[in-house]
Amino acid sequence: MNALQAQLREELAQLAAAGLYRRRHAVDGSHGTLLTVDGRPCVNFCSNDYLGLAADPRLAQAAAEALSRCGVGSGAAALVSGYNQEHAGLEQALAEFVGRPRALLFSSGWAANLGVLRALLTRADDLVADELNHASLIDGGRLSGARYRRVGHCDLPAFQRALAAARERKLPASARQPRAFVVTDTVFSMDGDLADLPALARLARRYGAALMVDDAHGFGVLGANGRGAPEHFSGEGGIAADDVDVYIATLGKSLGVAGAFVAGSQELIDYLVQRARTWVFSTAMPPALAAAARAALGIVNNEPERRRRLFANIARFRAGAEQLGIAIGSPHATRGAAVGWEAITPIQPLVIGGAARTLALARHLFEAGFWVAAIRPPTVPPNTARLRITLSAAHAPAQIDALLEALAEGCRRCGVNAGGLAAPAA
């Protein structure tokens, strides 16, 4: 064994001892609410398939038809020969859906966030970011070279102080005016709470900053028509679509497919086509995936009952948890978070604290026929390991009730204080 192998083995052993070692589990069949995991049938309560579209046969049919016309791969980057009519049609449909002039497809949300931040920001610029932003936003911001101003979660006064400091920073003369960006998730992926977009938009306008949002977990779910967090916050005292300068969302959650897109002005998209390296130098997504995503977008448009079922399932789960004394919700102060988020987001965390108890409870649920992911550091802060329970429009009420019963029993067996955090050392 060489030196590198020995070092890696030691570090892996340390992760395992701390309960932080991660394992993959291969799923047999389609990725719907009913799965077979390691040979055991399970009801899936940890997917981001919020509208139940990942296993919808209409998406598979759209993909199959595109496969017969376009083949499997796109063959090249979009600027070479990989840009298909399926891509163009999906970009147009997405732009119309979110009410922006243009949209640009990326291979993943990670590629979109890194590509945008590295294209638009330099060392002369400032980035003001929520501390619980997705890892792709964090990495993209750091790689951009901009001054990274990390602020407390949903802490609006901290955002204001950081923007004021950015405006006062003295810089040597440069080729262009320095930029300031406010960057935030809309729905935070591990907590399920909502950023206060109207307040952030007002701050951005006041300090001459651009607002960039990652609406991965809001797109398709929030708003009267599922058009995401900007629509949810529209109306009197809210925001308009163009208050968000850079809108990013994924196709692999509510739409049940894969990939991501950036929506914004004509100038923004034209500039990203020139400068976003994760787009310029990546092979375009398979046309069949674009066809499937466009079919999913049509279903979101035409079947609002899916969102109604989702919200009913969220309400049922929360009411049942409260009746059983199970404390569901974010462990973080939500002083600047939008009010009422608990009732509208499908992400419902049960924060336990210690990794060992969290793993034990997840194992109990698995043996009872439920698949719920145990989320541990570094994905979440130390001592906030949790079960990240997610609801889907495809869940039946009886499945939700059975999960709650299994949760209550599992908390008793595993020594989890369901009304609050267990001991961190556990």
Model description:
The protein is α/β, with parallel strands linked by helices and 426 residues long. It has two domains: 21-50 and 304-414, Aspartate Aminotransferase, domain 1; 57-302, Type I PLP-dependent aspartate aminotransferase-like (Major domain) (Aspartate Aminotransferase, domain 2). It has helices spanning 3-17, 57-70, 78-82, 85-98, 109-120, 135-144, 156-168, 197-206, 229-232, 266-275, 277-280, 287-302, 305-324, 355-367, 397-414, and strands spanning 27-28, 34-37, 40-44, 102-106, 126-130, 147-151, 180-185, 210-214, 246-250, 260-264, 347-353, 370-371, 373-375, 385-390. Strands 4-10-9-8-7-5-6 form a seven-stranded mixed sheet, with helices on both faces. The protein has a four-stranded mixed sheet with strand order 1-2-3-12. α7 (156-168) packs parallel to α8, α13 (305-324) runs parallel beside α15 and α14 (355-367) crosses α15. The protein is globular, with a radius of gyration of 22 Å. The two termini are 34 Å apart. The model is unreliable at 421-426 (pLDDT under 50).
